[in-house]
Amino acid sequence: MQCIDIERKLGIFSDHWSPRIIANANGQDIKLAKFSGAFDWHAHDDADEMFLVIKGGFTMEFRDRSVALQEGQMIVVPRGIEHRPVADQECAVLLCEPAGLLNTGDGPESDRTTSGEWI
Amino acid sequence: MQCIDIERKLGIFSDHWSPRIIANANGQDIKLAKFSGAFDWHAHDDADEMFLVIKGGFTMEFRDRSVALQEGQMIVVPRGIEHRPVADQECAVLLCEPAGLLNTGDGPESDRTTSGEWI
C-alpha cells in the first residue's frame, strides 16, 4: 500500500524489451518497459495484453494492419492475435498482463525472452 | 484492437465517482474516473484495485495511514483493506479491477454505487 512512482521506476533501468514488474493486482502484473526498434512477432494464446504509452510512441503491428500509439494512448491486444511492437524512437510503456507471461509469447524463446523482474 | 485515447475518453464525461469502462483485458476492466471530494469508506473482499493518477492528485486514506498520489503515481489497494479516496481538487484516475466490481465495495450500496458503463 505504497505510492509507486512511474518516473522513478523508469529511472532504474535502461535496456529495451525487458519489462520490469512494478505491481500485481488480481494475478495481473503491472510492468514497465522501454521499447526501441522492432520486437519479435508473437502471440499469447491465453492472455490479453494491455499497453499504455507513458512516454513517446510506438506502432503495434498486426499481420493485417498497424495501430500508431502516442503518449496517453493505449491498446489491448486480444489473446491469440499475432503482433509486434515497433518503436522508431525509444518509448516507455506500461503493460498489464497475467503474471508470468513471457514477452515473446507462446512460440520459441529468444535471447529477449523474459517474464520480467520486480523493481 | 484500436487506439484508446485517454484524454478523449476523459472529455466524454464530467461527473465524479462514476467510473467509465474503456477496455477489458483478462477479465479486468480498465476504467477512468474523476474524483472530487471524499468518497465512501469501503473494501472489496475479493478484489485488488489499482489506481493510476492521470491528472491532478488525490489521497488514498486507510484506517491507519494515508498515501498521497500525484500524476504519474499509482497504488494497489489489496483486497479486504478498507480505503477511501479523497481529492481536494478534481483529478482523473485510471483504475484496473475485476469486471463488475462495485465502486462502493461489498458493504451497503449508496446513490454512488456503480460498476461502470462503457464509453
Secondary structure: elements and pairs:
Two copies of one chain form a homodimer.
Chain A: E1 4-5, H1 6-10, E2 20-25, E3 28-38, E4 49-55, E5 57-62, E6 66-70, E7 73-77, E8 83-98, E9 117-118
Parallel strand pairs in A: 2-9
Antiparallel strand pairs in A: 2-3, 3-8, 4-7, 4-8, 5-6, 5-8
Describe this structure in words.
The structure is a homodimer of 119-residue chains. With 119 residues, the first copy, chain A, is mainly beta. Chain A has one domain: Jelly Rolls, CATH 2.60.120. The first copy, chain A, has one helix and nine strands; from the N terminus they run βαββββββββ. Chain A has one helix spanning 6-10; strands at 4-5, 20-25, 28-38, 49-55, 57-62, 66-70, 73-77, 83-98, 117-118. In chain A, strands 2, 3, 4, 5, 6, 7, 8 and 9 form an eight-stranded mixed beta sheet that branches. The longest helix of chain A is centred in the first third of the chain and has 5 residues, at 6-10. Chain A is globular and about 40 Å long. Chains A and B meet through strand 1, strand 2, strand 4, strand 6 and strand 7 of A and strand 1, strand 2, strand 4, strand 6 and strand 7 of B.
